[in-house]
Amino acid sequence: xxxxxxxxxxxxxxxxxxxxxxxxxxxxxxxxxxxxxxxxxxxxxxxxxxxxxxxxxxxxxxxxxxxxxxxxxxxxxxxxxxxxxxxxxxxxxxxxxxxxxxxxxxxxxxxxxxxxxxxxxxxxxxxxxxxxxxxxxxxxxxxxxxxxxxxxxxxxxxxxxxxxxxxxxxxxxxxxxxxxxxxxxxxxxxxxxxxxxxxxxxxxxxxxxxxxxxxxxxxxxxxxxxxxxxxxxxxxxxxxxxxxxxxxxxxxxxxxxxxx
Length: 260
What we know:
The protein has two domains: 1-69, Helix Hairpins; 71-255, Up-down Bundle (Four Helix Bundle (Hemerythrin (Met), subunit A)). The chain is mainly α. Helix content is 75%, strand content 0%. It starts with 14 loop residues before the first helix and ends with a helix. It has helices spanning 15-36, 40-66, 72-105, 128-151, 155-181, 190-222, 232-258. It has seven helices and no strands. 22% of the residues are buried. This is Cytochrome c oxidase subunit 3.
């Protein structure tokens, strides 16, 4: 059937429903894990989300690469959708920065009227946090290298630099996990512990999601899904990764350096 418009009318798909169910099981499972120490529901939700993500990504890759459904008009819609998604993520982190600044600029009597609160030993910002900052800045450089390589149709350089970015993301996650294990305070240690672990923890989750995004992009790059003029799948991953970089710079500046 021939279309006489530039838009993509998507086929019926079960993946929005399964994604919603997976999210429901995941969040309910988190509550179940915290209160009754049962990981069954959270593992079920995670498994459903992983399978759904794989299948949904597969369908979108087919629509854009093999079926030619992503016209310029569709691409513009995808670009605006990604921009609005990143804006919503910015506002998500603004709430954590707001909570941290509110608590640190006006510490109440319950925490000793001082910041960091009495009894809290903060991390040295010149140790692992500084290394993590260097890692993420380096990954931002390498993902830009990948973009320029794709624009110049140099797939060899694109693959090397993208793999470097993925490895840096994994290294960052490992160091962040090690830092958590060595932390001299917990999430239950006053407002400092709460804001620290919530802010850095959600950022770490975004790094894991971004690394997965880049890994899928690597698979598509190996399958020659991207060209000089048609590679928005990669651009969306790169935008997301730069967003993760900027959030970390703010986290490092406010929470590790100034707040500590």
